[in-house]
């Protein structure tokens, strides 16, 4: 039994105790490394958001100018459409006046014909 202890259990026990001592003294280092990594990742994330927010006014101005230009183009388009519609209205007014004149002429001609041929 003593031989088994010396041959198997003692090295196993020594290895286990050594591993436990190594873990005990290095766990603070590993925790500190994990905390440092976490802080670095947080710092990188803050920098990423800061860069995005620093770029925000420039992107906002660009979008605002684009929307403003689109509004001006739309306003010009409506003004052109209004001008075209006004031209059409004038054309139709002239056409209506022309047809009214033709109608009046035909009525006069008919009345004249009716008077001449009872």
**Radius of gyration computed on alpha carbons:** 48 Å
Helix/sheet category: mainly alpha
Profile the largest sheet.
none
Count every beta strand, where a strand is a DSSP E run of 2 or more residues.
0
The run of helices and strands is: H
* Distance from first to last alpha carbon: 155 Å
The helical percent reads over 70%
**Average pLDDT across residues?**
87
Molecular shape: rod-shaped
Give structural notes.
This protein has 118 residues and is an all-alpha fold. The chain is 97% helix and 0% strand. It is built from one helix and no strands. The longest helix has 115 residues, at 2-116. The radius of gyration is 48 Å and the shape is rod-shaped. The relative contact order is 0.03. The mean pLDDT is 87.
Quick synopsis:
By secondary structure, the chain is mostly helical. The chain is built from 1 helix and no strands.
